[in-house]
């Protein structure tokens, strides 16, 4: 996700929930807090955590990051729509 304020992309996690992990804000906060103790400041999940049903992959099994970028851009455009 690109941030105009920081003129940089912000790290974001896309997570497929399992039985033990739900789609709550508390779970997302717990993941962000845990990761912040493990990585450098610039690698922290400042872009947040997004819950998805599946990670888009190519036939060979590689993650299609471009589709995740498009999804993030659509999400941002939805937030910025002008109210008439």
What would you say about this model in short?
This protein is α+β, with helices and mostly antiparallel strands. It is 32% helix and 12% strand.
> Which value, in Å, is the CA radius of gyration?
14 Å
Major sheet: arrangement of strands: 1-2
Question: What is the CATH third-level topology name?
Answer: GMP Synthetase, Chain A, domain 3
Beta-strand segment tally: 4
Instruction: Give the CATH architecture.
Output: 2-Layer Sandwich
- What is the CA-CA span between the terminal residues? 27 Å
Structural class: alpha+beta
- The whole-number mean of residue pLDDT values reads 85
Stretches where pLDDT is under 50 for at least 5 consecutive residues are: none
- CATH superfamily descriptor: ANL, C-terminal domain
Number of helical runs? 2
Shape: globular
Q: In CATH, what is the class?
A: Alpha Beta
H/E series, N to C? EEEHEH
